[in-house]
Amino acid sequence: MAFSLFLYKLKPKKMPAILFKDESYQIIGICMDVHNNLGPGFLEIVYKDALEYEFLKAGIPYEREKRYDVHYKDIILPHNFFADFIAFGNVILEVKAITGIPEESIAQAINYLKVSGNRLALIVNFGELKLHYKRLVF
């Protein structure tokens, strides 16, 4: 019995494009600069103030403490949520100054994505010797 070998040209799988790649790269770069200058140990508000200064200096459009309503069934709940920053009109930036990025912060950012209609959240933690961040795509 003769066997014939079929050689298939394997096509490399196309990697999905990184959502808001340039924007998130710029935001993370600014966060690294802030962390390199301030180091760990400050309250979140200090890092937010420094980020706001850097966003202004870089000409990055942002909103600080952007308010979102929370819709539940057929009502809007009386309490809102406030994203630390919305940069470029579509990237949520949540600032932390703690040890690690706990699951609660991840769950909170996912809920923020659901409520806001945005698709990308960055959780950035300034609370350790090295800057840590997490990208969440919804």
Helices and strands in order:
Layout: H1 21-38, H2 44-58, E1 62-68, E2 71-72, E3 75-76, E4 81-87, E5 91-96, H3 103-116, E6 120-125, E7 132-137
Parallel strand pairs: 5-6
Antiparallel strand pairs: 1-4, 2-3, 4-5, 6-7
Task: Describe the structure concisely for a colleague.
This protein has 138 residues and is an alpha+beta fold. It contains 3 helices and 7 strands.
Characterization of the model:
- The chain has 138 residues and is α+β, with helices and mostly antiparallel strands.
- The chain has a single domain (21-137), classed as Lambda Exonuclease, Chain A (Alpha-Beta Complex), CATH 3.90.320.10.
- It contains three helices and seven strands, in the order ααβββββαββ.
- The protein has helices at 21-38, 44-58, 103-116; strands at residues 62-68, 71-72, 75-76, 81-87, 91-96, 120-125, 132-137.
- Strands 1-4-5-6-7 form a five-stranded mixed β-sheet, with helices on both faces. Strands 2-3 form a two-stranded antiparallel sheet.
- Strand 2 and strand 3 form a beta hairpin.
- It starts with 20 loop residues before the first helix and ends with a strand.
- The model has no long low-confidence stretch (mean pLDDT 91).
